[in-house]
Amino acid sequence: MQVALALASLPLAVRSDAADVAVVRELLGKGAYAEAAAEAEAGERGAPKDVEWPLLRAKALGESGQVDAVLTVIGEAVDRFPLDIRVRLAAYEALRRSPQTDAAHAQRLELERLARGREWAYRAPAERVALGKLALLIGGDPKRVLELFYDPVRKAHPDFRETYLASGELALEKSDFALAAKTFAAATKKFPEDAEVWFGLARAYAPSDFGATLEAVGKTLKLNPNHAGAWLLLADQHISAENYTEAEAAIAAALKTNPNHSAAHSYRAVLARLREDAQGERDARAAALKFWPQNPEVPHLIGRKLSQSYRFAEGAVLQREALAFDPKFLPAKAQLANDLLRLGEDEEGWKLAAEVQAADPYDVIAYNLTTLRDAMAHFQTLSSEHFTLRMDPREAHIYGADALALLERAHATLTKKYGLDLRERTIVEIFPDQKDFAIRTFGLPGGAGYLGVCFGRVITANSPASRAGSPSNWKAILWHEFTHVVTLTLTKNKMPRWLSEGISVFEERQARTLPGNARGSWGEQMKPRYRAMILGDDLTPVSQLSGAFLKPKTPAHLGFAYYESSLVVEWLMEKWGIDRMKRCLADLAAGKPINAALTANFAPIDQLDAEFKARAMAIAKNTGPKLDWTPPRPAQVSSEKALAEFAAANPNNFTALTEQAKALIRAKKWAEAKPPLQSLITLYPDAHDRDGAHAMLARVHRELGETAAEFTVLRQLADLAPDATEAFSRLMKLATDRKDWTSVLDFAGRSKAVDPLRPEPHQSEARAAEETGHKTEAINAYRTLLRLEPADPAEVHFRLARLLHQIGDASAKRHVVLALEEAPRFGAALDLLLELSDPSSSAQPPTDRPQ
Questions:
Q1: CA–CA separation, 104 and 109 (whole Å)
Q2: Which residues pair with 459 in a beta bridge?
Q3: Which CATH class is domain 1-157?
Q4: Domain 624-721 has what CATH class?
Q5: Quick one: which of 348, 350, 300, 351 has its CA closest to 322?
Q6: Class of the 380-621 domain?
Q7: 622-637 pLDDT, tens per residue?
Q8: What is the reported pTM?
Q9: What is the pLDDT of residues 19-52, one digit of tens each?
Q10: Contact assessment for residue 380 and residue 363, using Cβ atoms and an 8 Å cutoff
Q11: Any bridge partners for residue 381, and if so which?
């Protein structure tokens, strides 16, 4: 389609009585659809040659679900205005959503003919926007559509809202939610009383910002209480939060306005499936497909929502049904690609993603997936009995074997505990780039707060390389995610998020003492902020816990949702036992709603709400019970004098002791800092903060030269905080000075469980193994160390060469030469080279421990 660019000088064509049209548009904007249709019909009788009236009337009828009436009105309009591009486009849109496929195809051909033959005639802004929509419909380049149609009209007519709506809609269709948000946000400033632009903004925020979505939906419904799309967006969010009653009410509100809304009935089908109501699902699907039996949007929407509930196998079946309706329906193909990748069916999943990207190069998610596939092409695959592990080759050499060993321990422990015969291999993918993790997991960059995600038999995780400055114990993460594999398999992915996360965090805490796992407190633990939240107003009833994950007020509230859920699971397990929990999971697999399953296996849900609240309150009150947790007023700690006075009057106040210690440390008054820190630890011995009182007291001991006391406090901290890397480093140094090689190996292992990509723990491990005569372990540690660019590579090559020579490995000579390349005057290395070059020299017999 050849299109002229010169639009700036074009006048805004108005062919109707502006006042009358404005009245109808205002009625439409307020959701007064019946009144708008009546006014438009009256206007049409008075001005039958005015094309605006049938267009407005058809829109009003469509919004209220009068499908047949729309076809009649728009059909008559085509007869009266055969050359009007907007009428033809409206006719095509109406016909393609009906069984009249031949008529729809004819309208599309006529649209293309008019656009090619009469493009010069369509100069009004609304006509240019219609041409842009047509260009997209027939496969035009979205960027060219913006450049040739939408942007010029917006520049020439900045107050013409349709260009904002069309541009924003285009960004949404291509999954470019950032651009959509930017476009609709600009529109809300120009048209603050326009429900449609607020609705566009709500959809742009929906994938990433629940609070902003609710705010925009609220403004939409305030302006237009009958906006079916806004009600359905609310329903969508409620379904994600497992608030099914609220979702049902929102769907009912949409159907009150438009009883034939196919998406509303599709959401009814989703709820019926989630409730295991087969007849209800059939009835809802029939209503959704009433006017267009081959509508691919219906199975696509149902499948997409099921996939968001982690029911990917069911979702994939529905996407295939959508593609059977329309093989060119790209949203279904893109969703199917994602579903298959999450089911571990990679070959077909990547193939479909490539097909979507080839058909629509501007779809952001498809582009991201194909780019990710290329990035993952160099990943190394490691295998064990039950796992396939994919990761960066460098990282695979460093900790891939440890990761597989950890996963196999998790498999042996958890499948036995929960009675699961897990027959399929679990796929684990570890990404050194957080962006790649997010794209593999969510389809879009983002999700910075996620460390790992489990889809069922596929786990994705961030590697330590992606978490610089924010250490986390990767072993705990993998244990947590494999627990999801177990529980999702047992429930056929039919469990609420809170229970799934609660069991995983609970099992993290249980796992910290198992053989082979580094010691330290895995999983979310009680902390001062959580204590205050429990004793305040932030404790969520058990019956409403899923919502705590969808709409947390802050990141701290999301962490608290994990912790609270784990407390519920811990309580259920302790009071009723694992067998009751297994029966509860079986009930969920059979389709029983969560609250009904809890009632059947534990106690009535109201009783659980009340009893758990009492238990959580008791735990909170028993956290540092002799501490005064009352927060001081700002004025009471605003100066050194005020703080000293407050601390003297409140000697056991947590904030006073903490701030007093910090102030004394800043002033380098080391001896004076000891008493408040010792009081804190005595009153709150199980604090898990890696930067808290234990860490501060250890520093004080170090500054005072009290090495033995420092070691004792740091060891306490190491047992409390699984990610206290600075404590692990110092403990390795102190243990090395003591020649306490057992402790060196212990703390090196803990450090590697947080960041195996740092040279330090490998160097300490190699030295300890060497000193204790475990040559094979020392050789492996030194080889790993060389991959991490150690500070003194010559020393590492030399020590490795010496060990290799001792076991008769001929590669010793290569490493001693490399040592001398780094340090030509390295005397010990020169001596070793001479020894290696002397044929009479012989290696010492190995003294390694049995493997």
A1: 9
A2: 428, 454
A3: mainly alpha
A4: mainly alpha
A5: 300
A6: mainly alpha
A7: 999 999 999 999 888 8
A8: 0.87
A9: 588 999 999 999 999 999 999 999 999 898 999 9
A10: no
A11: 390
